[in-house]
Design goal:
alpha/beta; Rossmann fold; DNA polymerase, domain 1; 2 domains; 6-stranded parallel β-sheet; 6 strands; globular
């Protein structure tokens, strides 16, 4: 199995946050900073790591806002896309979270998992196509500042999802769009994901292989398997 993949795989579809870059913790912290004041106003407990994993990780930003608020029985108006980040609407909360993430990235930078960089280089050298599929609207900026843009051939990201009306993870549509960029059938593509929603998207899309990337703990590894991972690794260079 070259690169740890079954025969017939010619396309790699990589999630970004938590798979290629160590930005999942950044997003988790930004979500917590965003939701905790809302929860305090409602007299509810704080946003937790389990909340992040179950309701927002890997999903388009506004879907994450809706799903988490619904889990706490909090109902807010949708508002408008350009709502100020202090407005108590779904869009306002989403914009607040995005502003927080951008501030953290600007202040602290973005770390690349070196095992993932090595895997991208090996995939390139092996002639595999390489596409990033992420729910983040900041994907292009992150790829540029990390130098990963030179190692991938295209992307489907939060901007694409919004502009083209693509269903977000756990629906398989964003990964299917990624495969379509290089005219590949799902069976010829492997999905690399650290979020259960993304792994489920890979399973539902009937992709040839789904690699779950566990950066958390044994319980998360089990959840990745339950949601459809073909294999679970701690780092991509475990496959080399």
């Amino acid at each position: 199995m070259p690169l740890g993949l079954p025969d017939g795989i010619s396309v790699c579809l990589f999630d970004l946050d938590g798979v290629l870059t160590d930005t999942a913790a950044v997003h988790r912290a930004a979500w917590k900073a965003t939701f905790d004041p809302v929860l305090a106003d409602e007299g509810q407990g704080e946003f937790t790591a389990d909340d992040y994993a179950e309701y927002v990780d890997g999903k388009p930003r506004l879907d994450g806002v809706r799903d988490f608020l619904a889990s706490r029985d909090i109902h807010l108006p949708e508002g408008e896309a350009d709502d100020a980040d202090d407005k108590r609407t779904v869009n306002g909360i989403g914009n607040r979270k995005n502003d927080d993430v951008l501030g953290r990235i600007k202040r602290d930078g973005v770390k690349v998992f070196e095992g993932s960089r090595r895997y991208l280089e090996a995939a390139r050298d092996a002639g595999l196509r390489r596409i990033v599929v992420s729910s983040s609207a900041n994907t292009a900026d992150v790829l540029k500042v990390t130098g990963l843009a030179e190692l991938v051939e295209g992307r489907v990201d939060g901007v694409t999802i919004r502009e083209e009306g693509i269903k977000g993870k756990p629906a398989p549509d964003s990964f299917l769009a990624g495969a379509k960029l290089v005219d590949a059938e799902p069976a010829a593509a492997v999905v690399f994901e650290d979020a259960t929603s993304g792994v489920e998207a890979g399973r539902r899309g009937e992709f040839g292989y789904v690699v779950g990337v566990n950066r958390i703990d044994d319980r998360h590894a089990d959840e990745l398997r339950k949601h459809g991972a073909s294999v679970v690794v701690d780092d991509l260079d475990d496959l080399l």
